[in-house]
Amino acid sequence: MISTAPGQNDGAWIVHTVPGFPKARTGYSWPAAEIAKGHLLICMTIAETQINAIAASLFRAEPFVYYNDIPETKTAGMPDFKKLAEGQIPTTPPFTISRTIKLTGADAVPVHIYSKSAKSRYEFYKKVILKKLKKTIKVWSRRDNKLKGDCRIIERNIRLIKSPVEIAGHPTNIEADESNWIVSEPGNIFCFMDKPYAKSQATEPALAICIDKDTIFARFNAIAAQVENCPQ
Fold first, then answer.
1. 90-107 burial code (b ≥16 CB/10 A, e <16)
2. In terms of C-beta distances under 8 Å and separation of at least 24 residues, what long-range contacts does 159-166 make, across chains too?
């Protein structure tokens, strides 16, 4: 999260898969080892008054805060941001949380944030995201081949997107892509997921940012045109 304009109710929230980005008070050089990999970066314009709602979700996801210079005078009355900045971790329920913010600007779409702590022991895609969206989801993610697709509940399927695919004329596959995301069926929801579709994430904290916007959905849904068969 970035406070962009002193004295103004403006800020930015960036979610991404780029290692070590951004660097505090210095320039950033793209790591050579990442050039051949796929990455995803989403920059959202927010009001500073939404920082605490975002912090509440991040707090459950137990992130490592490597830099913070937002003065306490700006965060007075933001208890969740204070806990986040101090590196606290959730020790009492609720271990899952959902928050909604609205982006600023001409096309101010709502963003739904879902998160869980490691203590929840929930499989994030099925127990949190599927229940919240109440729709079938199509998953693009690296996999462990232990957690399979799930078609047992009608209109609440988990379908795995076929890999490899071609994106804008460029062939790619889930092994070469560091991003994890889902789209809903029917649309128009796109979600950035911070954990891959693997059994290990049940014991890890996790976060999802979901945007209900037809133009964003359409770009990712084109990649998700073909899905694997349901497990037998």
1. beeeebbbbbebebbeee
2. 159/185, 159/227, 159/228, 159/230, 160/197, 160/227, 160/228, 161/223, 161/224, 161/226, 161/227, 161/228, 162/226, 162/227, 162/228, 165/223, 165/226
Residue with tokens 């990712």: 220
Give the Cα separation of 127 and 146 in Å (integer). 17
Residue 6's pLDDT is what? Answer: 60
- b/e per residue 156-175 (b: at least 16 CB within 10 A): bbbbbbbbebeeeeeebebe
Collapsed DSSP state (helix, strand, coil) of residue 56: helix
Q: pLDDT digits over 178-204, tens only?
A: 999 999 999 999 999 999 999 999 999
- Local structure of residue 122 (DSSP, 8 states): -
Pairing of strands 180-185, 170-172: unpaired
Q: Give the chain's length.
A: 232
Token pair for residue 119? Answer: 């203590």
Q: How far is it, in rounded angstroms, from Cα 82 to Cα 73?
A: 11
pTM comes to 0.91
pLDDT band of 115, cuts 50, 70, 90: very high
Residue spans per domain, the chain? 2-223
Q: For the CA atoms of the chain, what is the radius of gyration?
A: 18
Contacts of 136 by beta carbon, 8 Å cutoff, 6+ apart: 155, 156, 157, 158, 159, 184, 185
